[in-house]
Amino acid sequence: MTPDPATAAIAPGRRGTGPSRPMRRLDAATLGTLPFLLILAAWWLLPYVVEYPAYMLPSIGTVLDYAREAIADGSLLRDVLASLARLTIGFVIGMALAIPLGLAIALNRHVADVFRPVLSFLQAIAGIAWVPLTIIWFGMGNGSVIFVIANTIFFASLYNTVIGVQSIPLALHRAVRSHGGRGLALLTNLILPGAMVQILLGIRTSVAYGWRALVASEMIAGSNGLGYMTMEAVQWQRTEKIILGMIVIGLLWVAMDRAVFTTIERRTVGRWGLLQR
Amino acid sequence: MLILLAVWQVSVPLIGMTPYFYPAPSDVLAAFVDLARKGILPVYLADSMMRYFTGLVCGAALGVGLGVLIGMHRKTALALSPLLKFLFAIVEVAWIPIFVVWFGYGIETIVLALIYVVFFPVLYNTLLGVRTAPQILVNAVRSLGAGRWQVLRLVILPSALPGIITGLRLGAGFAFRGLVFAEMVAAKTGIGYLIFEGAQSQQTARTIVGMIVMGLLWLAIDQFYLRPIERATIQRWGLTVDAAERT
């Protein structure tokens, strides 16, 4: 019963009677921007009130200047693209391994018995814990980061695939069987489409994990990308770089969430008449 | 599992790589005994656990408090929801660099990051619980003369409890990963540090000891701490954790 935190909108409840519709929307907009304005004001005023070394919290102007500079010389775009490329590759590898194995585990008891103990133990070793080892194996850079992302996404999707297959009603199994469906026909007509909803719904969660893994592993093992950009800035005390990186990470996730997953949900859940619980 | 171990042990001399690159299970076992005997492992374990539970408790308290507030007060919800959505999008790992600048390497940075991780799932699920509190019951209690606090205590909190537990469970999972990562970059003790430092100093066997201990630790937390809570609460009330979120 836990909807994805990102979807469970914390929009105001339907309780209580408020003013008319347009009025309420205006209300929401002003109230919603208020905390942002307060934070910006505090950020702007803080140096006048408390004294602290400039590197601790650069002024808004410094961050904006740096943002302009990073956009102009293309370094920000390069980091963003590098990160997204890794996420994509890791995602493809993770899914390509997870779906077949998940189907096999769900459909065949022997496969399940053999793999389950190993997998449940490996799953407990969170993806990021592999980073030091992958640095030794693959060196700093792409190899390590992609391994960690693929690892993270693999385990998240594996679970969803298994659940997806298991949630297909037995009656449908029998129906397809009694019409002579078996082997490949059973797989393409029943199992894959039946499990697909859960797999697609699970993508959102697994990419959310993958995204964290991406940023985290770039911080330790990256040679470029958003995570590397923010962690590297710590050494040079370029705090404006850290703040810009954080804002970009936040905006990018919001954009991804909106663009990719809402579309997926509309296409699948909406079409098949399943409501997200 | 046993086959895997055997293959691993046998393959080491066959491949003939240095133990730095590819240590054998026997090396790992030796490293484990060494770490345990020197007392490093127990100390690191205690440090990690202390940080983990401090973060978990503080984050959960904050999440429940704010969740109830937002759930019951419409104006607060309107004011805070855009900010919270934005903050949620900045994953906790992205905060670690700036925490390091502000608080240095150490416990503050780690605990803050953990609070941040635990806070959001608890908040959202608490909110969901508060929102689904039956209005009929609220009305009933109110018409019997209950004040704000009594409504909260008698209706809202009990009906939000399953949500709170679910959120806590989710948060505990996220936080464990967060702990290991935070210890890698911002600590000088702990399991995450052991994993990281082992690799840095080319004692790969130590890294693997750290990874295994970490995996067992998570299984233990899950088995002896989270599952019983879940069994005592959620399952009793006929709710189970959604499949997609369990990983």
Poorly predicted runs of chain B: 240-247
Report how far apart the termini of chain B are. 21 Å
Low-confidence stretches of chain A: 1-19
Question: Structural class, from secondary structure content of chain A?
Answer: mainly alpha
CATH architecture of the largest domain in chain A: Orthogonal Bundle
- Report the top-level CATH class of chain B: Mainly Alpha
CATH topology of the largest domain in chain A: MetI-like fold
Task: Count every helix of chain B, treating DSSP H or I runs of 4 or more residues as helices.
Answer: 10
Q: Give, in order, the helices and strands of chain B.
A: HHHHHHHHHH
Helix and strand succession of chain A? HHHHHHHHHH
Assembly form of the protein: heterodimer
Please compute the radius of gyration of chain A using only Cα atoms: 23 Å
Helical proportion of chain B, percent range: over 70%
The best one-word shape of chain B is elongated
So what's the CATH class of the largest domain in chain A? Mainly Alpha
Structural account:
- The complex is a heterodimer of chains A (277) and B (247).
- Chain A has 277 residues and is an all-alpha fold.
- The N and C termini of chain A lie close together (6 Å).
- The model of chain A is unreliable at 1-19 (pLDDT under 50).
- Chain A has helices spanning 21-49, 60-72, 75-107, 109-124, 131-138, 142-166, 170-178, 183-221, 226-235, 239-270.
- In chain A, helix 3 (75-107) runs antiparallel to helix 4 (109-124).
- Chain A contains 10 helices and no strands.
- Chain B has one domain (24-239): MetI-like (MetI-like fold, Orthogonal Bundle).
- Chain B is built from 10 helices and no strands.
- Residues 240-247 of chain B have low confidence and may be disordered.
- The chains are: A mainly alpha (277), B mainly alpha (247).
- Chains A and B meet through helix 1, helix 4, helix 5, helix 6 and helix 8 of A and helix 4, helix 5, helix 6, helix 8 and helix 9 of B.
